[in-house]
Amino acid sequence: MPAVSETVERVRSIDVDQYKYGFVTDIESDKAPKGLDESTVRFISAKKNEPQWMLEWRLQAFHRWLTLREPQWARVNYGPIDYQDLYYYSAPKSTPGPKSLDEIDPEILKTYAKLGIPLREQEMLAGVERSNVAVDAVFDSVSVVTTFKEELKQAGVIFGSISDAIREHPELVRKYLGSVVPITDNFFATLNSAVFSDGSFVYIPKGVRCPMELSTYFRINEKNTGQFERTLIIADEGSYVSYLEGCTAPMRDENQLHAAVVELIALDDAEIKYSTIQNWYPGDAQGKGGIYNFVTKRGDCRGKNSKISWTQVETGSAITWKYPSCILRGDNSNGEFYSIAISNGHQQVDSGTKMIHLGKNTTSRVISKGIAAGVSNNTYRGLISSHRKATGARNFTNCDSLLIGDKCGAHTVPYIEAKNASTVFEHEATTSKISDEQLFYCLQRGLSGEEAVALIVNGFVKDVLQHLPMEFAVEAQKLIAISLEGSVG
Amino acid sequence: MNLLEIKNLHADVGGKEILQGLDLTVKAGEVHAIMGPNGSGKSTLSYVLAGKPGYEVTQGSVRYEGKDLLELAPDERAAKGIFLAFQYPLEIPGVATMTFLRTALNAQKKRRGEAELSTPEFLRLVREKAGGLGIDQDMLKRAVNVGFSGGEKKRNEILQMALLEPKLCVLDETDSGLDIDALKIVAEGVNKLRSKERAIIVITHYQRLLNHIVPDIVHVMAKGKIVRSGGPELAQELEACGYAALETEAA
Ligand SMILES: Nc1ncnc2c1ncn2[C@@H]1O[C@H](COP(=O)(O)OP(=O)(O)O)[C@@H](O)[C@H]1O
Ligand SMILES: [Mg+2]
Question: CA-CA 20 to 30 A from A477: which of A264, A278, A360, A483?
Answer without folding.
Answer: A264
